[in-house]
């Protein structure tokens, strides 16, 4: 179990940290500009998603390029499609519910209920992450076994 936890932390923690910063920055900027809780919640959700998935995709692409290069294969558009498919399988089910319902609602309501904007945003992100990671980690195990074998294909 320790080994799995380390693997998950290595995979997800850098993206989580970047996502937290993007979420806070977007929430602050949009709230200041619009004074709209709904717009703030949506902007924070999507900024966090872009940062999170952008970093994971970049890391996956780099890892796949290195693995294929060691085997003498080029990284192709087809390989990029495989990287994207693996991410979709890993996060698709978790992301739909998270981005369309859970995270925006928490980002909208928690700052109001707590009476503190930044604490509410961070707590909302953390609570949404719990509901996100349960299906995401299960899907990661599936994608790891079946969809992340790029170095053996020409």
Automatic annotation (TrEMBL):
Q: Which organism is it from?
A: Hymenobacter monticola
Question: Is Transmembrane helix among the key words of this record?
Answer: yes
The question of whether Transmembrane is a record keyword is answered with yes
Q: Which UniProt keywords apply?
A: Membrane, Transmembrane, Transmembrane helix
Q: What is the name attached to this protein's record?
A: GtrA family protein
The regions listed as transmembrane in this protein's record are 12-31, 43-62, 83-102, 114-140
